[in-house]
Amino acid sequence: MEDQLRDYKEEHFIDIRTLYKQFKPERRIILYDIEDGKLFAFSYKKYKKTLNKQSRKILRKQYEDAKRNNQIVVFVTDRKGKTMKSYSIDETKT
Hints:
This protein has four helices and four strands. The chain is an alpha+beta fold. It has one domain.
């Protein structure tokens, strides 16, 4: 399943980057919903509130690392399979 989630992230990178650039000053969290086939951009603070305490702690570190390394934080979610995985990807990946 993890390979499948990674594949979705790779397949939609251009769309992810395009959406991210629309909100770049705000450094939005990008969510790709597999079932809907849609991308969403959330503010860090708003998205963090949807997570449990342990996940918020992990996101905080990932988000800070992503800011330092010019990366985008992307969550790929498969609600049907009840799976979610986060990735940090380079903003300038070709």
